UniProtKB/TrEMBL annotation:
Designated name of the protein: Decaprenyl-phosphate phosphoribosyltransferase
Organism: Saccharopolyspora aridisoli
Region (Disordered): 1-59
Organism ancestry: Bacteria, Bacillati, Actinomycetota, Actinomycetes, Pseudonocardiales
Bias (Low complexity) ranges: 7-18
EC identifiers of the protein: 2.4.2.45
Length: 360
C-alpha cells in the first residue's frame, strides 16, 4: 500500500511538471517564438473575484465605471471611448491603393488619401454608436459589455443617436466635397454596416462577407478619393485576404466557445470549426494565388523583380498568421499583428520590397 501511495504521488508530481512545462511553452510563444498568444487568457480563465477592480467582468469594476454616469467627465470619457480610436488603425488601408499605384509621394494624392482616412474613421465610429445603442439592453446583461459607455449609462441614448447622425452625416458631406466616387463608396459602406447592425450580423456567411467587405471598401476608398485606377488583382488580394482574417477570427471564437462553454451569438452557432477552417484555408490559397499574379504584373509594368521577391515574405506572413488561427488565438487582425514581432518584421520586409518595386 505505501508503494501504491508513493506511485500516485509521483504520478501527480509528473503531471504538475508537465502542466508547468506547457505553461512555460505558452509563455514562450507569447514572446513571438511561435505565434501571437492573443486570447490565451480567455481560453484558460483564472479564478475571478467579484471585488477585483482590475477584472472587467467583476461587479467592482462595473461599479467603478458606472460611478461616472451623469457627470460631464463621464460623458466626455464615454464619448472618447465609444469612438474607439484604436480601431482607426484599420483605416490605414486607404493608403494601399495610392501606395500600390506609385503615387503616395504626390502631396495632392496623399491629401486625398488622408481625407479618406478621416471620413472612414468618422463613419466607423458612427457605426459603433449605432450598434451599441441598438444592443444596449443585451450588453447590460453581458459580464464585460455592460461596461461599454452606452450600456454603462455614461452616454444617454439620445446623445448617442445625435453623435451618430453627426458622424455619419459629416462623413458623407466631406466625402461629397472631395469626390463623388468617394461619396458613393462611403454611402455603400454605411448602408452595408447599418444592415449588419440591424440584423445581418446574425446571418451565417453573410456576416463574414460584410465584415470582410469593410476592409475592401477601405482600399477602394483610397483609390476613389484620388481617382486612381489599379489592377483587379490588387482588389482580389484585399478581398480574400480580409476573408482569411475574418474567418480566422470566427474560428477562434467558435473554438473558444467549444472549450469554455462561453455564450456566442446566433450566427456563430451555425459554424463548425471544420467549416471555418475550410473557409480560411481556401481564402489563404486564393490570396496567395492572386498576389502572385499581381507580382508578375508588377514585373511586367514596373520592370522590377522586387514584386516577385515580395511573394516570399507575403507567403511566409500568411503561413505565420495561419499558426495563430489554427491555435484559436486569432482575434482582431491588428492586435494579432502587433503582438507577433515576426509578423511585424515580415510586414516591414514586404512593404520594403513593394516600395523598391514602385519607387526605385
Amino acid at each position: 500500500m505505501p508503494d501504491n501511495k508513493q506511485a500516485s504521488t509521483d504520478t501527480a508530481e509528473a503531471a504538475e511538471a508537465s502542466d508547468a512545462s506547457k505553461k512555460a511553452e505558452v509563455e514562450s510563444d507569447a514572446e513571438g517564438t511561435i505565434g501571437a498568444e492573443f486570447g490565451d487568457e480567455v481560453l484558460e480563465p483564472g479564478p475571478k473575484k467579484a471585488d477585483d477592480e482590475k477584472d472587467k467582468a467583476s461587479d467592482a469594476y462595473h461599479a467603478k465605471v458606472t460611478a461616472k454616469a451623469g457627470t460631464p467627465t463621464g460623458l466626455a470619457t464615454g464619448l472618447i471611448k465609444e469612438l474607439r480610436p484604436k480601431q482607426w488603425v484599420k483605416n490605414v488601408l486607404v493608403l494601399a491603393v495610392p501606395f500600390a499605384a506609385g503615387e503616395i509621394l504626390d502631396p495632392a494624392i496623399l491629401l486625398d488619401a488622408v481625407i479618406a482616412f478621416v471620413v472612414f474613421s468618422m463613419a466607423a465610429s458612427g457605426i459603433y454608436f449605432v450598434n451599441d445603442a441598438i444592443d444596449v439592453e443585451a450588453d447590460r446583461q453581458h459580464p464585460t459589455k455592460r461596461n461599454r459607455p452606452i450600456a454603462a449609462g455614461l452616454i444617454p441614448l439620445p446623445i448617442a443617436y445625435v453623435v451618430c447622425v453627426l458622424l455619419l452625416g459629416g462623413s458623407l458631406l466631406i466625402s461629397g466635397l472631395t469626390s463623388m466616387q468617394l461619396l458613393a463608396v462611403m454611402a455603400l459602406y454605411i448602408a452595408v454596416q447599418l444592415g449588419y447592425c440591424f440584423g445581418l450580423k446574425h446571418q451565417p456567411v453573410i456576416d463574414l462577407c460584410i465584415v470582410a467587405s469593410g476592409f475592401l471598401l477601405r482600399a477602394i476608398a483610397g483609390g476613389a478619393a484620388a481617382n486612381l485606377v489599379i489592377t483587379q488583382w490588387f482588389y482580389l488580394i484585399v478581398a480574400f485576404g480580409s476573408l482569411f482574417m475574418v474567418a480566422g477570427k470566427r474560428y477562434a471564437e467558435v473554438k473558444l466557445a467549444a472549450e469554455t462553454g462561453a455564450k456566442i451569438r446566433k450566427s456563430l452557432k451555425a459554424y463548425s470549426p471544420s467549416y471555418l477552417r475550410f473557409v480560411w484555408a481556401i481564402a489563404a490559397a486564393i490570396t496567395i494565388m492572386t498576389y502572385s499574379l499581381w507580382a508578375y504584373d508588377i514585373r511586367e509594368f514596373e520592370m522590377s523583380r522586387w514584386g516577385l521577391i515580395s511573394i516570399v515574405p507575403m507567403v511566409v506572413a500568411i503561413l505565420r498568421y495561419a499558426v495563430d488561427i489554427d491555435k484559436g488565438v486569432a482575434g482582431e487582425p491588428e492586435e494579432v499583428v502587433l503582438k507577433d514581432k515576426v509578423l511585424m518584421v515580415l510586414g516591414v520586409i514586404l512593404a520594403g520590397c513593394l516600395f523598391l518595386a514602385f519607387y526605385l
